[in-house]
User: Fold Amino acid/amide ABC transporter ATP-binding protein 2, HAAT family from Jiangella alba.
Amino acid sequence: MTKDDPLLDVRDLRSGYGASLVLDGLSFSMGAEAVAIVGRNGMGKTTLCDTLVGFVPQSGGEIRLAGRRLDGLAPETIAIAGLAYVPQGRRLFPSLTVDEHLAMLARRARGRRWTPEAVYELFPRLAQRRHHGGAELSGGEQQMLAVGRALLLNAPLVVMDEPSEGLAPAIVDVLVDAVHQLVAENVAVLVVEQNLRAAVRMADRQLVMVSGRIEAEFTGEELLDRPDLQHRYLGVGATTGEYA
Assistant:
């Protein structure tokens, strides 16, 4: 891999569930930047995330991370290779405290940029709640913990599936700031978002997904300034920012 090669390169990707093909020839690439995947419901956005991290097996195409093919690798191998995942729904352990969630990855993080202490600096609210169980946290606190847990892998790429879902605007602000900080530190962030305004705030590159493929690419400014594009590709009104 040279400095001009993409960090993540996805070519002609196909995957789905049983005989049902969801991703059908999907291709895109990205470097150490923030990129958002947007699209109507049912277009395959979460299937893309689950395929990238190995939860859904691919039936064709290539996924390369820093030049290494990830095709067919187990999820834990993909994580070690450098792809961290913040799943939709957070998937925390209700009975484990914040400290205990982070402690599971603390040994691997020792001496690297992201440690539990660094996560607490990024999200001070988590430090205040460090002895509370996952089920005792608010939705925003749970999302911060899900992001912090992923950061402890110290991966060059973080994939976030619907990170702003159900969150108050103030918490979305915190997540937007975290994404910008990661990119400033040369970490790539791939965001799948249902909230257009949140997606645009997190990433300038907006990839529009239609029927299992990347159909178009716009800047965030283009999408916000063009209600016709929002309606055509997303079924969204300029005043709401939410998909139909």
User: Anything to note?
Assistant: The mean pLDDT is 91. The chain has two domains: 1-82+155-236, 89-154.
